[in-house]
Each structure stands twice: as structure tokens, then as C-alpha cells.
Amino acid sequence: MESLISKLAIDSLFPRFCLGCHAEGTLWCLTCSINWWPAPVRFGCPFCGKGSLQFVCVDCKGESFLDGLSVFVHYGNPVVREAINQWKYIGDKTVNDILFRWIVRAAPALQPPFSQPVFAPVPLHRFKCRARGFDQAGVLADWCGQIYNQPVFDLLVRTRQTASQAQKSHEVRKLGELDGLFCINPQAIEIPEEVVLCDDVFTSGATMDAAARCLKDNGVKRVWGLVIAKGNL
Q: Which of 17, 66, 77, 213 is 20 to 30 A distant from 178 in Cα terms?
């Protein structure tokens, strides 16, 4: 009953329009589900954009801890950006199925270059997770574990709340400014050698790199990232 009431409330406050063609009545119409697919993301260092590979370049490697990044789409894509906004801030759970289908279809291109990785979310702070009702990074990590048939561990805990990195201009974001933001989850049973960190959006990379640093400081040898969308450099 509660879920039905929530659905009716969302429908009345936020009428559904297709993310692709804006037709009223559904978030993702049959025509768009058949015909729409985003342009592929150009490979390059996730921090500076140099090169043509997903790996962190030699220049950035000296000050970062992430080894590379798999990206579904550019954050400037209006369809995916609106889907993420609906998912995170409006709480429309029907977006889950849309995003999941996109990630399943993109799975071969997103597959990390690790043989037996553990997937782990870049977690929200517990207060923000409680306010939002779910942790989008945790949902993505669960999807990836299911798609790639690999384990999913909650390896990290966020120690303090921070402002959304996606809302900050690139000029004021700095790699390393969030070091110390995470600690190892005391309930983690073991520390794997290879970890794929999952999050919805990668902007400056400061948050994910802080998570990678925590993992490597505690024995993880290789850390990759996997995100739905990546913002501008």
C-alpha cells in the first residue's frame, strides 16, 4: 500500500514524460527503447583526457590512486542526465529498470580489465543515504555483480558528508582534496587484490580517487572505476 501511495504521489507531482522523445505517459517509450542509444564515449585518461585508453596516464599516475575507468556515457547526454536526476532526486524507482537495461546492453564495453574483481560501491554518507532512501552506487555495484557474476562487498564507509562534486565547477575541484573521506568497513571480512569501484557520476574524480586511495592503503593492489556517466574535465 505504501509503495502504491508513493507511486501515485510521484505521478501527480511529476507527470511522466519519455526521457528520449518527451511523449507523455511513460519515462521510456517503446520507440525510444528500440531506437535510442548514446554515442560511444571517447577513451582517454579519466583525469586529464590524454591518450586513447581508459587507463590513468603516466602523468596523472603520480598523484592518483585509481588505475582506470569504464564509462557508459558522457554526463552531458540529456537523456541519461535526466534519468539520473529522476533516479536520485525525485525517487522514481521506474528508472531502475531503464538504467539496468542500459548497463546490461553496455556490459561488454564496460567490462573492467581484471580477471576476478570484487565490485564495491563508493558509498554515500549514512545521513544522505537515509534522506534519499537508497544508495545509487550500491545499486550499480549490485547490478554489476549480477551482470559479471562477481562478488559485491561493502568495503568502504564514508566518514563525513561533503557537498555534491557534480554541482561544483571544475576550477574549484582538486584531486586529493577528499583524501581521508573513507575508511575500511569494519565488517569487511577480507581485502581483495582487485576492486572495481562503482558510482553513478564521475566529475573531477576526487571522490572516487579518495576511495581508491583508502583501498590501496589497506592492501588492495588494483582499483578500477565503473560509472554510468562522466562529466567534463
A: 77
- Give strand pairing partners of 69: 225
Question: Does residue 90 contact residue 97 with C-beta atoms inside 8 Å?
Answer: no
The strand pairing partners of 55, in sequence order, are 68
pLDDT of 8 over the 60 cut: no
Greatest mean pLDDT among 87-96, 172-181, 185-194: 185-194
Residue 202's closest CA among 136, 143, 154?
136
* Cell numbers that stand for 75 in this block: 554526463
CATH classification number, 40-230, choose in 2.40.128, 3.30.450, 3.40.50, 2.30.30: 3.40.50
- Residues making up the chain, counted from first to last: 233
For residue 9, pLDDT over 70 is answered with no
Question: Whole-model pTM above 0.85?
Answer: yes
